[in-house]
Amino acid sequence: MAKKNLQTLKGFRDFLPEQALAREEMFKKIRVVFQKYGFLPLETPVLEYKEILAGKYGDEGEKLMYQFRDRGERDVAMRYDLTVPLARVVAQYQNELVMPLKRYQIAPVWRADNTQKGRYREFYQCDVDVVGSDSIIADTEIIACMAESLTALDITDFVIRINNRKILDAILKNSGIPKGKTVDAIRVIDKLEKIGEARVREELALLGIKTKGRQDLFEILNAGFEDTNDIEVKLAEYDGAGELAELVEILLEWGIKNYQVDLTLARGLDYYTSTIFEIILPDAPQYGSIAGGGRYDKLIGMFSGKDIPAVGGSIGIDRLASALEELELIKYDLVSDVLVCNLDEELEETYLRVTKDLRAAGLKVDFYYTSDKLDKQLKYADKKNINFAVIIGSDEAAKNEATVKNLMTGKQVKMKQTELVRNLKS
Amino acid sequence: MAKKNLQTLKGFRDFLPEQALAREEMFKKIRVVFQKYGFLPLETPVLEYKEILAGKYGDEGEKLMYQFRDRGERDVAMRYDLTVPLARVVAQYQNELVMPLKRYQIAPVWRADNTQKGRYREFYQCDVDVVGSDSIIADTEIIACMAESLTALDITDFVIRINNRKILDAILKNSGIPKGKTVDAIRVIDKLEKIGEARVREELALLGIKTKGRQDLFEILNAGFEDTNDIEVKLAEYDGAGELAELVEILLEWGIKNYQVDLTLARGLDYYTSTIFEIILPDAPQYGSIAGGGRYDKLIGMFSGKDIPAVGGSIGIDRLASALEELELIKYDLVSDVLVCNLDEELEETYLRVTKDLRAAGLKVDFYYTSDKLDKQLKYADKKNINFAVIIGSDEAAKNEATVKNLMTGKQVKMKQTELVRNLKS
Lengths: 426, 426
Known about the structure:
Two copies of one chain form a homodimer.
Chain A: H1 17-36, E1 40-41, E2 47-49, H2 50-53, H3 58-64, E3 67-69, E4 75-78, H4 83-92, E5 101-110, E6 122-131, H5 136-152, E7 159-164, H6 165-174, H7 182-190, H8 192-206, H9 211-221, H10 228-234, H11 241-253, E8 259-261, E9 275-280, E10 289-295, E11 310-315, H12 317-326, E12 338-340, H13 348-360, E13 365-367, H14 374-383, E14 388-391, H15 394-398, E15 401-406, E16 412-416, H16 420-425
Parallel strand pairs in A: 1-5, 7-8, 12-13, 12-14
Antiparallel strand pairs in A: 2-4, 3-4, 5-6, 6-11, 7-9, 9-10, 10-11, 14-15, 15-16
């Protein structure tokens, strides 16, 4: 095969060891937080009957879906998100599942999207959802869980923007938007950050909101709030204000202070019904929101035919990884703790014993398989980001000793082989 | 959508929370062992250019591969195993990768196979490979790593069958097999366990091995060995005997005693070049080998055009999970540690504080969102396999107390709310 064809498909990536390890560590830390909040894993297949996924994502989504006919003449599709399969699961196993269902799923999805600006065709979603409860505590728990996940990834500086779709809908209605244009207007407002207020005003005008309406709209959208009481007072005439105030109050009870009520927050997706939120990194605003979600009480019931309340959040792990890399917050874990060097074929038994003992103590140990010059082995250890080298030549072996070289500092210490575990474990 | 269509594709599965959690725990334990042995993760995409995968798995594999033309008119295929993508990675990044590459990958693959007998069309492979070393220590490390993974899963009773393809080839050659029939003969011998010696003899006769040859063949195949010396003596005339003896010797140095030299072990795949092994559970022989692998020095170089030695092993995680379930060795972790009950809307703030504190202490905590009868909440906890319920009614609240009910024993204890973390953590 020609060398030029050795490549991944456009929008698909390999993760070589260091990067794969960093991602695995991120997933691990996130999972710990998700489980602390009482969420449990749920796994669904990569392929579904196309019928399950079709017609759920709008015309645009339909075009981006990887779909094909399998050899059994079934029309199938690769999952496009983790939410529609969740809805299928809820309907299919309604008698087995304990409600409310609190599930997480960290898994790849596929969209044949254009690949500009760090968008990939294969990317991970990292979702938590509470299905079957309309309690606003569930909304706050999702937000708290997202926030704690970021904290677990050592991100200390982030802002949670919160809003309520009902308020946005009501404000729009008050501004005189023509019937049936609300969703379009929400999409326009969602672009506020990107295109600025002037252009949003223009586009809202095109949708039929008059000058006075636009003025009123932005006046209230740009309002600030002192406290929950202030929210209730200033938004008294709008449906959803009480919910938003309650949300804020409970967030404070969870100890979350880095929130920001932002009435301009719209979230592009049209299935949200009340609470919406997103999380941004002030130090890396160019990555946009790195987590977000909200309540969507009309979506999960699509297969069972009756509404099932649900609220969820999602961490954009690929975007987040890029942002963390830029902020130098990605910590590549040491790839292995120790390299046991191999200087003398005759000492193989000793090397194997030492390797075995260090592994038994839980250390990550690499062994250099074939005896070679020490220099070459230390270079290998360096390239693999290994912290310590255990060096045993015939002199050391004769005295049951070993030299431990700290590859970060260059310092080396001689010790009894029996002391290796204790010294390297600490 | 009609209810009947709410289903996964044939050969595809959902994993509901308990089962998903058990699998996640298995993966986690296996990863810890893989890393202790110095292996690192490597991730490749689910979709590849069809050209990369085509022609690598024989006619049968070709038929079972999920392949299609995407909207960009590219011929693509879903990965069929993790080894061919690994070979692509090795060729594509040869200047970046530190050799020997020790990588693991735990990921699903897809084969449109018939779905009898616990065979699925989407299933996980759990592979470790050492690429770029011809040291027999690498062979033993793969075997040791597989064995320790099983131990980490609390499997104490397993047998590692080992052999060397060179010996099998040489024995076959000695038996007078016609040129070009060796691979067929290996496939026949591989079925020994399933179809018995008599039928294997028949099939070998059909391949052209004469009566005397078949007799010689089975005499040596059925030979037993006392020790490594015995191997070298009895197999003196066969190429590969020295390698097998060395393999056994090093396994013993790793502390592995539950091996069995089995000259009838063939492993179906024809790409193995020397060491081969598989692991069986004597208590669940019906599941066949639950792990296996070997050395394949001619495969990884297929894209780079030069041979690159490699050895690897794979745990059949789906088969293993079924076997463990049957042996009652699957331990479903407690789904959450604690349920904080919700008896009185007025006490919400207290409940949230207690929930927050318990989570901050690292406990897995579920909170009952809406106040309800205690009975109903305890039933929920029971269904979700939760260990403790924290019960705070208005009486307890007035005294800053809480009742902790152990849901396994039914015992309940009253304590100060400030003592909850300490008591529940232990």
